[in-house]
Design a protein that fits this description.
Blueprint (H helix, E strand, L loop, with lengths): L1 E12 L8 H13 L3 E2 L3 E12 L3 E2 L6 E12 L6 E10 L2 E6 L2 E6 L7 E4 L6 E4 L14 E11 L4 E6 L6 E3 L1
Parallel strand pairs: 8-12
Antiparallel strand pairs: 1-5, 2-3, 3-5, 4-5, 6-7, 6-11, 7-8, 9-10, 11-12, 11-13
GO biological process, one term: transcription initiation at RNA polymerase II promoter
Keywords: DNA-directed RNA polymerase, Nucleus, Transcription
Pfam family, one: S1
Length: 175
């Protein structure tokens, strides 16, 4: 789920930024550029932990900028199939619900909920609640914590999508 990863990032700078505090400026620019971004290859970059090296500046022809290649270590969020996660429900509708785990949004279809759960549109706000004989448990409503198993992950160039299920033992809403 969370991994330490060594990454590289080029930082082009205008010569007006050159001076005694250049290294500090490059460090801040790196953090601003990469923290909170997502790539399909690496996952969500949560935090830059350490900057290993900042290369010598190379003048970019025709642009008047200097490019500094930096190597850094970052904490990245990369979900994988089969992983059990705790998330917070952000939206409930008749098709299922969306839950957030940090920057990752997980959709759980109504078909991937236990059989006892039914959509209750009359409730305010809408919810999935256990119904029927012997039904026990807590309803799935916006703001409730849920434990899900990720059954599918799709990686795009700039986003990660996940599908979850509650149809197994020890999964579901909790307080």
């Amino acid at each position: 789920m969370f991994f330490l990863k060594k990454l590289e990032h080029p930082i082009p700078l205008h010569p007006s930024y050159f001076g005694p505090s250049l290294a500090d400026f490059i460090e801040q620019k790196l953090r601003d550029d990469v923290e909170g971004t997502c790539s399909g290859e690496n996952g969500y970059i949560v935090k830059v932990l350490r900057i290993d090296s900042i290369g010598d500046g190379v003048v970019l022809p025709g642009e008047g900028l200097a490019q500094f290649n930096s190597v850094y270590q970052a904490l990245v969020l990369r979900p994988f199939k089969g992983q059990v996660v705790d998330a917070i429900v952000s939206n409930v509708n008749k098709l299922g619900f969306f839950a957030q785990m940090g920057p990752l949004q997980i959709f759980t279809s109504a078909h991937l909920l236990p059989v006892a759960y039914r959509f209750t549109p009359d409730a305010n706000p809408a919810e999935f609640s256990p119904v029927g004989e012997g039904a026990q448990g807590t309803s799935v409503v916006k703001g409730r914590k849920v434990r899900l198993r990720i059954i599918g992950v799709r990686l795009d160039a700039t986003e990660i999508f996940a599908i979850g299920t509650m149809k197994e033992d020890f999964l579901g809403p909790f307080d």
